[in-house]
Design goal:
By secondary structure, this protein is an alpha+beta fold. Helix content is 37%, strand content 20%. Helix 1 packs parallel to helix 3, helix 3 packs across helix 4 and helix 4 crosses helix 5.
């Protein structure tokens, strides 16, 4: 069974974010009201960490670092990314059969991406797979925009979610891109759905 520690190890290996930083982010998300990462049961028979909690840690790890000397409110940051509403879809035929096709928010789309990968409906590699391939998810301006890029054969798709409630500069853009391989490794550590 995959504990939050296993997912922290995966994020550390793929992103280079130090484990102490990832542990700190996990604790910050556990102190949110309500908690965005629960305190799980330890041991070999412990249930898997729910996919939304892993996504919460991934969001915090990708865009939750300090800007200047200010560390953002991790709870508000994760919630604001998850709340982003669907703004635009290009290449909808590539998304046919995926949960993102029906997702109204970025949070639903991120959770659905993991579920689709667990079920084998979406992959990160190889490029010639008959299923949809997630290339990357990009977080712009701390979640003001969340952009998904997919391919299926020679066709591409882009899905954009937007949250206008996120504060930020109109002239300075911060962007963090998470490669599809990160999602594939996380999904692979989770048990297969029934």
């Amino acid at each position: 069974m995959a504990s939050i520690g296993i997912h922290r190890d995966i994020l550390h290996q793929l992103t280079g974010i130090p484990l102490p930083t990832l542990r700190d982010l996990t604790e910050r998300l556990r102190r949110c009201d309500p908690p965005l990462v629960s305190r799980g049961v330890q041991g070999p028979h412990a249930p898997d960490v729910p996919a939304p909690e892993i996504i919460n840690l991934l969001i915090a790890a990708a865009i939750g670092g300090s800007v200047g000397r200010t560390l953002p409110d991790q709870c508000a940051l994760v919630r604001s990314v998850r709340a982003g509403r669907r703004l635009e879809v290009r290449g909808a035929e590539v998304l046919r059969g995926l949960l993102i096709e029906r997702a109204a928010t970025a949070g639903e789309a991120l959770d659905g991406l993991l579920e689709d990968m667990r079920a084998g409906h979406c992959v990160a590699w190889p490029a010639d797979a008959p299923t949809a391939q997630i290339k990357a998810v990009r977080f712009v301006d701390r979640g003001r925009l969340t952009i998904f890029n997919f391919e299926r054969g020679s066709q591409t798709a882009t899905v954009v979610f937007r949250n206008d409630d996120v504060e930020g500069s109109l002239f300075l853009r911060h962007s963090a891109e998470v490669d599809g391989f990160v999602f594939e490794r996380i999904a692979g550590a989770l048990t297969r759905p029934n």
